[in-house]
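Re: that chain you flagged

S.,

Sorry for the slow reply, it's been a week of failed gels. I finally had a moment to sit down with the sequence you sent. For the record, here it is as I used it:
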Amino acid sequence: MLDGWRAQLFARGLTTGTIKQRCQLLERFQRFTGEFPWQWRLADVDDFLADLRSGEKPISLKTLRSYSNAVAMFCSFLTHPGYGWGEFCERTFGDIPSQICFECNMPRHTTDDAVPASKRSFTKAELQRLFDYIDDLVDREYASGSKRWLPLFRDSVAFKVLLCLWASPAGNDHAGPGRLWPQSPRLRLRTVRRRPGPFAKGTAGSGPRRRTVLTVPEFDWVVDQLNTWTSGGMRANFATADRPSAMWPSERGARMSLGSFGDAFAAARDAVGLPQELGLHCLRHSYVTHLIEAGYDPAFVQLIWGRICGVFDVQHEAGNRAIARDGGAYLKLSITRDRGRVNAGSTSFGVRFAA
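Prediction finished late last night. Pasting the structure tokens below so you have them in one place:
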């Protein structure tokens, strides 16, 4: 049964990692019940999920939904008449498998916002402190002759790309020089093409998709920094740059993982004394929050962010949304020092915010 379901998942185009996780969960559920699928009852899934929620480290609601959905999908496979498992089990064991997951015993997803309340956005002052610290650290390491300046430079640019283009730093590939499309004369928007890597998130049954990301004036300074990293030659400074296709190569040649970026981000966050609940993913929430604070209409933010069901990452409403902000600097101008000094032949490699 499990082999047949695994084949069905492969046929649907799901990733190997997703299939492995779901099959391992079903094996875990079978061990918990001590019975076979044609013997499973509604109370079995109730006891299984309740046990996971009542331990010393209870699983989150998101994980709970994922687990119950996996059991429900496996039962749907077993009960589909086209696969013949019902007839086989009745003939062989005198019992048939049935669906054991229904609305009455599955966690309901009633809101489009599943983000925990603790995962708030960064304030502008917090971003100021964080990126100033990282930029100064890059400069100090380079001035001392340490080789650590290059990985720190990579992390700095990657974090800012995550903030301004909400692109997972571990999910994109390098596609040669950065592509900058013409500015929109009316909205003053610039666009950046993203080439997804093999580990980028895609839709079910399909691979990761290329995306065109619009940058509003508050965030378009990141385009210059992204081009500095690609066409400016900074990425090429890695000895391993020609081996992987990753946008962010590691010192050992493999693609930088999201966990490695998370560790680097946490170290910088702790160094400047920011709360521990502010993780790497909070940069994505900050993008939407700060655009709404700047006076952009939520419908416009929804359009450029690519969401289907509205804007849900906002923690701070703008005081007056009737007046849209007409461009200008995202952060204060005191951090625009030495805007043009970052290039392939520069003697200093700090990455600064620029308006």
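What I noticed first: The beta strands are 190-194, 211-215.

Talk soon,
D.
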